[in-house]
Design goal:
Layout (H helix, E strand, L loop, with lengths): L4 E7 L6 E7 L8 E10 L1 H8 L3 H6 L9 E8 L11 E3 L10 H4 L23 E4 L2 H4 L1 E2 L6 H21 L7 E5 L3 H12 L4 E6 L2 H9 L4 E4 L8 H9 L8 E6 L4 H9 L1 E9 L11 H7 L2 E4 L8 H10 L9 E6 H10 L8 E6 L8
Parallel strand pairs: 8-9, 8-11, 9-10, 11-12, 12-13, 14-15
Antiparallel strand pairs: 1-2, 3-4, 3-6, 3-15, 4-5, 5-7
Helix pairs in contact: 5-6, 5-11, 8-9
Length: about 375
């Protein structure tokens, strides 16, 4: 590739202006590939990074380019790459595991001791091109029926929801599930719970529009939380529990928002012997009622990312099952400049569904 510079969204200080700048095209390692980004999602996790909540970005240093859920086309490959070549349509989970540490060796790559993450440990995908290391281990081909936007929508929220609901939450047919927060991740969790035959799915959010979308995607009940934040987490939990068997709480509760109040409420909302999954990126200091956790034998489980080896199965599921199409969560497709604005706007509001960047400096995604 002869191009030496590219357009990328850059912030030079935490909480500072994000702007599109001309920067050098990133180099690739011997095990890496350079990808032309065709679609990339604007995620609440990117907002956390921009606000200075993420230690990996602080360690990487500023200026920084966000973005971690994307798809694209391979442009060039490192000398040690065997499975990919220029022109391949690809995507990745956002955790790039090493395959060598003790966690990877024991089948736990999502907690890899040497994990790398575009948009956190290195510059991300809010750019025309992104450099991805460890390609043979983590990169995956797109099936012909899966579009760039579908794959990018999978890249964080949908895959993260799959792990949270199915793998970590171990949801079963007939279960009751309460999902706190109905942004892109929460709505994905609702779709996953519905796909597994959950009988009762309770969606909780401060937005009436988000709750309407949740109903469209499989929620059986909704609870509107006070926007002013005046509701006690116990009261929010009680509002969801009234829809469950014996009104004692859900089999599985999921905090998909990450706010202290939603984390606390999700614990209170779990039935005795139930399970709470923390999947929304937490910040602040929630006051978890550990006496309740002990007394009710509530299981609290963390969930982070997705294993690359499971990605082909999920991609095939999307290709063959219209009910699992993640593009129903895409609210708008925008330019790189508009994506910068959308990320900064998360200071004021959470978008209904996903914002997807598909128009870059010199190209537009062939959807």
């Amino acid at each position: 590739m002869n191009q030496s510079s590219m357009k990328a969204a850059i912030y030079e200080s935490f909480n500072g202006r994000i702007s599109v700048q001309d920067v050098p095209v990133p180099k690739i390692s011997e095990s890496g590939v350079l990808i032309q980004v065709m679609a990339t999602g604007v995620c609440r996790s990117d907002w956390h990074g921009w606000k200075g909540h993420d230690g990996d970005i602080k360690q990487c240093g500023l200026p920084f380019c966000p973005g971690h859920e994307f798809s694209g086309v391979v442009v060039s490959v490192g000398t040690n790459v065997q499975r990919f070549r220029p022109g391949d349509r690809v995507t990745i989970p956002f955790i790039l595991s090493c395959g060598k540490c003790h966690h990877c060796s024991s089948g736990q790559p999502t907690v890899c001791a040497q994990q790398q993450q575009p948009g956190f440990t290195q510059w991300g995908s809010f750019a025309e091109f992104v450099s991805i290391p460890r390609a043979d281990r983590n990169l995956r081909h797109l099936p012909p029926k899966v579009s760039f936007v579908q794959a990018a929508a999978l890249g964080c929220r949908f895959t993260t929801a799959y792990r949270a609901v199915i793998q970590q939450g171990r949801v079963k047919r007939g279960d009751s599930v309460a999902v706190f927060g109905c942004g892109g991740l929460g709505l994905s969790c609702i779709m996953m719970a519905a796909s597994q035959g959950a009988k009762t799915i309770i969606a909780l959010d401060v937005s009436g529009l988000a709750l309407e979308k949740a109903k469209e995607l499989g929620a059986t009940h909704t609870v509107l939380i006070d926007k002013a934040g005046g509701q006690d987490p116990k009261d929010v939990a009680a509002a969801s529990a009234r829809y469950t068997k014996f009104q004692e709480g859900a089999d599985l509760t999921i905090d998909a928002a990450g706010f202290p109040a939603t984390s606390e409420a999700a614990v209170y909302a779990a039935r005795p012997g139930g399970r709470m999954v923390q999947v929304g990126l937490p910040f602040g200091s929630p006051k978890i009622p550990m006496s309740l956790v002990a007394g009710r034998e509530i299981e609290i489980v963390g969930s982070h990312g997705f294993d690359a080896k499971d990605l082909p199965d999920l991609l095939e599921l999307i290709a063959e099952n219209a009910a699992m199409d993640p593009t129903v969560l895409v609210e708008s497709c925008v330019s790189l400049e508009e994506g910068c604005e959308a990320l900064m706007e998360m200071d004021k509001k959470s978008p209904l569904g996903m914002t997807m960047i598909t128009k870059f400096g010199s190209h537009q995604s062939r959807l």
